[in-house]
Amino acid sequence: MSTILTGDRPTGPLHLGHYVGSLKQRVKLQSDNEQFIIIADQQALTDNATNPGKVRANITEVALDYLAVGIDPTKSTIFIQSLVPELSELMMYYLNLVTVARLQRNPTVKDEIKQRGFTDSLPAGFLVYPVSQAADITAFKADLVPVGEDQVPVIEQTIEIVRRFNTVYHTEVLVEPKALLSKVSRLPGTDGQGKMSKSVGNVISLKDSADEIRNKVKNMYTDPGHLRVEDPGKVEGNPVFAYLDAFDPDEQGLAELKEQYQAGGLGDTKVKERLVEILLAELDPIRKRREAAAQDMAAVNQMLQDGTVKARAVAGATLTQVRAAMQLDYF
Ligand code: ATP
Ligand code: MG
Fold this sequence. Notes:
The protein has 14 helices and 5 strands.
């Protein structure tokens, strides 16, 4: 049995990337493991400080997405980061064990700084978000962290912090986590430019209506060189095929479709129609479960409160051990 910490930033409703990258694994793992799921509102504020309304509104969006995909609050503990202040205290101690240079070298942080156009305007909190994530993971002594590929460098940084903490304070209190990647650990965005990201807006959300899905797929980037139906098309770098790879249950049929596309004679419209059909079949039941859960928001809020109480107790116990290891247990 593993202890799992995983979660999402409440910066928008969850999308297909989350579904294949992490959510499906969480549903599978929740029965036989101790799973904590963090709605990381403090981390969301590191690049949304002036937009607290957005973060607040998306806490419930994310919670509803969890219920929609089958995360069961009797098996998984779902909680809100800012309501567990023990995490911030842990982070404060860890900040002294990492260098600014190391954070600046973190490839994910580097990419995200570029993508957000932060130059002189980089918030200090954003630069140190991997340390906050280290606090989240270690507070629960998580040994397994299901994440997308973009978060692997952040987990590596957590491992470094754990090692350094345990060495410096002569303890074994902190546990080294392992990243758990799914088969599709980096789903591209509908623009084909980078990974699907809430903050970029190149997403198909789990809550999108059938019409929105149809429209988004229709406007998706494909192979810019594939101008006429009879032209040969490229499958690599073509997000329509990346989505088919992730969602099409008919492997043989998909292999044939790819061959036909590469040979020429298969139009984008046909391929997109197939994708729409597959996505609708997958997302219809999810959307229905989401709508049902949204009927009782009081229950959703209660679930978050209960999860937070439980999470706080666990994080508090770790913090007591951390403080003792650091000789901060004064009285
Ligand atoms: P933001 O743009 O605000 O950072 P996001 O879309 O990147 O939002 P996060 O909340 O940062 O989503 O990520 C939550 C989890 O989902 C992480 O484990 C992350 O690795 C994973 N994830 C995010 N996007 C993808 C994707 N396109 N493919 C696979 N996994 C993803
Ligand atoms: Mg992200």
